[in-house]
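Figure 6 in text form: structure in, sequence out.
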């Protein structure tokens, strides 16, 4: 997912959810490029005006396969949720 902080202060992402279940329950890892390097157990900060790419890798979860649409939710320290429907590849 490509994300951009359009706010006036740094945004800190503190958790990631897949179909409303925190990612560690699925056994997934979250990795990033650009300004983000993280996993589901650490917070990620994105400066005001900055963009980043967040890659979410789903490993060996039986009911999720290529072509399945999932709901990804990023939760910030400020209490905001950012939701995106994504088709798995």
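Output sequence:
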């Amino acid at each position: 997912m490509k994300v951009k902080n359009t706010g006036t202060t740094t945004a800190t992402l503190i958790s990631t959810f897949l179909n409303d279940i925190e990612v560690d329950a699925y056994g997934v890892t979250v990795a990033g490029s650009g300004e983000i390097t993280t996993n589901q157990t650490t917070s990620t900060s994105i400066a005001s005006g900055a963009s980043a790419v967040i890659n979410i890798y789903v490993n060996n979860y039986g009911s999720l396969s290529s072509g399945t649409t999932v709901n990804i939710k990023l939760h910030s320290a400020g209490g905001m949720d950012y939701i995106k429907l994504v088709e798995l590849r």
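Caption detail: The chain is about 0% helix and 50% strand.
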